[in-house]
Amino acid sequence: MNIIITSAHCIHAGTVTQSVNDPDTPNPDRWKKASEPVYKERINPMQLRRMNRLMKMSLYTALDAVAQAGLTSPDAVIVGTGMGCLEYTESFLSCIDENQEQTLNPSYFITSTHNTPAAQIALYMKCRGYNSTYSHKAFSFEHALIDAALLLDEGRASNVLVSAADEITPGYIRILKRLGSAADYGEGAASFICLPGSVKTEKRICRIIGAGTASSPEKARSVLSAIFKNAGIHPARVSLVLSGAAESGGERSEHDALLHAVGISAPAEQYKKICGEYHTSSAFALHHAAGIIGLKNSAEVVLICNVYKKNNYSFILVSKY
Amino acid sequence: MTDVFITGAGSISAAGDSVDDSLRAIRSLKTGISPISILESRHTGHFLAGEIKKSNENLAEMAGWDFSEPTSRTALLAMIAAKEAVRNIERADLKNPRTALISGNSVGGMGNTEKFYSDFRKNNDSGHLRDVICHECGSSTEQTALLLGIDGFSTTISTACSSSLNAILLGLRLIRSGAYDRVIAGGSDGLARFTINGFNSLMIYSNEICRPFSADRKGLNLGEGAGFVVLETADAAGSRKKLARVLGGANTCDAYHQTASSPDGEGAYEAMRLAMKSAAVNSADIGFIKAHGTATPNNDLSEGKAIERLFGNEIPPVTSTKGYTGHTLGASGSIEVIFSILAAREGFIPQNLNFNSKMPELSFAPHTGVSVPATPFILANAFGFGGNNTSIVLEICT
How far is B179 from chain A (nearest CA, A)? Predict the structure, then answer.
């Protein structure tokens, strides 16, 4: 994989300007709510009224990324979302019950589908090109990136907007608690303009040189080795790992053993301390990695390694050059 | 470019539990649409739907899945169809990392989630958790991969009603990129109160049987099911019979309205035009068009206009198979591609059921009667909410 990221915008719970070694102040709530911008600065207020939070967050990041890249509309839109439009899904479910399946207002239903963020972005920017949505749990964003790389390779698009969007609701948090989850949950949206790796541009903020997913630690090792082999760089070149693994416990030791086995000895930062746990948190990590890479004398090769439910690993390898 | 063949197919819908049953239904013009009797809803007994008359427990038995493991109807249907599709493939070949699984669905485990939510809404400490843990779209794909023994790449696409056709298109692209030799691609969706009430609230759920491309059409009937195909290179296929070749495809966005299609069918037109371009076929080459044809006033008009614009005065036979199965949402694209291949291989074009009179706005009527496809090329459409339009072009192998 070889994609240039030329612009990025991310809405999340923390702030990305913190230095790598300065841990986030602990949040007493287990819900890390995204700090949302003033949407009407970018989105038409008339249209804003008809949007749910996930649509607003994703559209705002998309508009900013597109504008930063000097575009009015991308050639293609690909979105990853693990849970889709949770708030409106719950609202329509409540409507069905409250009104006993009669005389329902369709507005929650029509914007409850998982492809709503991608559709709204395309509609708002009048983008009639390729449009897809990946919803494969914690791999949703990585798979959107893999499709984008393929599309650019095929020459079907000269630029692709890749976005990620996940929201949380009080109901969702309650369910996660009942399921016994100990994680601090978060939410957010992020958008990136991707160009083919061969393009010469001044606007490059980082380069993605590999991405992959695996559903077992054994498989993860071969996927990660293949990423380095295909990228043509040695794992020892990694100077920072942005890790989505828990801080301690079995998941952590398995994660450390995996990285060690592949030959990575770089320090790891727990990026979920900032953004919280959610299906597309690796999009936050990519935005964070781009920020770090942009600093003077900073890491030049960053590996994003997410772990979800112990066995599911995903990787994004990011390079300065 | 690498040739990509379809060498296996599996399907379950109201038209039949297997590809053989489905073919019998299409050949004998037998609809699977009937009053809802399995799903528990206020509309049970009178709303018409393409419902598979089996409980989840029965479906689990068919799939060979341990029913004590939490799972959704969407997942069970996917497992049944995917298992049928791969019946001629060795377990070791499925386990090979060069085999991938791509599945599409629109509402994931909603059929269970809505049961959970009824209790949960009243009291946040109630509701059976086993009914909600399979909510995610990706859950059914994970379970299907587990049952089939696929541990290479697997993913889930959710582009509403074009989900499974996009899964086939991605499979084609991934094989052509050289990343995989074999992709099991398709999709599934189980009937749910959520979608029935959703489409009903939009006033496009017909209280009569759906009549695609008929002037008196009143809307759609929902359906449920799953369809999967095996996409392979010629090398990977070995001696397996090649049913069809996937020549190309395209995905576009209408960018017109969240749920409605543009009146001139711009997105549909572009999807079909670009699919034919990528397949290097001309409009005169197409033997028939397997339309999305939901029987809503808006879809059929918009799709019909797009077909007219693209094909001019030489419109090939156009058929919608929604009359057999109802609209199976995310599964419709792959199920209907399979129906088209099955029929065309037997030398006939699936008939568009329940047609009464030509739409005054269109120059053509859908295909009824018995006829042999004039060419081996099929153009297949699937369009969804959000303007997600996809078309692919297939060639039947002899």
Answer: 10
